[in-house]
Amino acid sequence: MSIPLRPISAVQALADSVRGRVLSGEIPPGTALPEQELSAAYGVARPTVREALALLVHEGLLRRERNRSAYVPEVSPADLADLMYVRRPLEDLMAQALAGRRVAPADEALARMAGLPADAPWALVVAEHMALHEALIVAVGSPRLERLYGALAAETRLGLVRLRRVYEDREVLVAEHRELLDTIARGPVEAAREAVQAHLDHTWGED
């Protein structure tokens, strides 16, 4: 028996478009997104815009304050430093748990990243980058670790927008992540831990 698929809603389509523009850096941090302007630009009703923005606010990609339009939050160097302060111990737990193991979903995310066309939007690179790291966290098998890591996802994705300038050659990003996955898979534990911390320090310390 075939199960019919529902076509994507206007709300979801609008949220997908705005999300992609934010994560590609087309809509830069600090930009306000008035409902009326989005309604006119996309040719959709304001209630549709309102729902789409609410979805992105819930994801943490946009913020909304009382009597203000939704806007793209700034992620400052201090924000990134604090983000890494919290991420490092979580990633260290991952390294200890996965040393000596191959994580197929992470390899698959890396293959998808490597297979993106040269002109692919940066948002697609961000999506696969997130999928790779989230696959490693999920492979640990700790629901609490997943929840803690998931709470940082929105800020991490916004931070990755800044890395577009660092990784203009995507092959460098792919190579670094391939080495990371290979080192974790080889082990031992201390080598995996050192590789994860060095990866975070290098990737997020460049900007």
Automatic annotation (TrEMBL):
Give the classification, highest ranks.
Bacteria, Bacillati, Actinomycetota, Actinomycetes, Streptosporangiales
The cross-references to Gene3D superfamilies, in alphabetical order and at most eight, read: GntR ligand-binding domain-like, Winged helix-like DNA-binding domain superfamily/Winged helix DNA-binding domain
Q: Which SUPFAM superfamilies match?
A: GntR ligand-binding domain-like, Winged helix' DNA-binding domain
Protein name as it appears in the record: DNA-binding GntR family transcriptional regulator
Specify the domain of life of the species encoding this protein.
Bacteria
> Has keyword Transcription regulation?
yes
- What InterPro entries does UniProt report for this protein, alphabetically? GntR_C, TF_FadR/GntR_C, Tscrpt_reg_HTH_GntR, WH-like_DNA-bd_sf, WH_DNA-bd_sf
An example of a Pfam family matching this protein is: GntR
Q: Which UniProt keywords apply?
A: DNA-binding, Transcription, Transcription regulation
Q: Describe the location of the HTH gntR-type domain by residue ranges.
A: 8-75
Q: SMART domains under this entry?
A: FCD, HTH_GNTR
GO terms (molecular function) for this protein are: DNA binding; DNA-binding transcription factor activity
